[in-house]
Amino acid sequence: MRIPLDRSKDRTRREPLSRQIQLHVEGLISRRLLAPGVKLPATRELARELGVNRTTVALAYDELVASGWARAHVGQGTFVADQVPAGTEAPRPATPRFDWTGFLSKSAQVIAADARRRLAYSQVPRPVPGVISFAGGMPDASLFPTDAFRRVLNRVIRDEGRELLQYYPARGYPPLREYLAGYLLRFGLEVRPEEILIVNGSQQGF
Q: What is the pTM of this model?
């Protein structure tokens, strides 16, 4: 999590570092860039990333918990609260929200759904041990984590069942977009799930 901090020497003209961290995290939560229940970085980890004392981050987290923005569990960490404190309003984002709607086809805008994924090729060559096939620009199939993918797929089928057979929003699977928003936040990219567009491949992306 990248947080811009004012480190000017004149402390009378700037907020304490712990207060700056607190306010920045509050802004991320109120703008839903940090979803309810998300675990905040460990104090040691965030302190090292920001170049501040661990106590500074701990003070910020204590204030977040005290004001209702977060909840702490001993031995587990600090998490975003399930509900934002009453009376708080999301501040206006510093950058305009990017809307993908104008880039979608009319059909996609009407039905708000993607076409089902199809095989790019009618026949996919079987992987041969010791041979990397560059046919069709496809990656080495042996590198794909088949077992992990199977476990995740089974879990999704178990949780969502028949809903998987329905159309999903044209911008992509909502839970995946929410996850990507949180993942990108680790690299300082503050984007909302609705600003993310997931495509089926490079051709659809262009």
A: 0.51
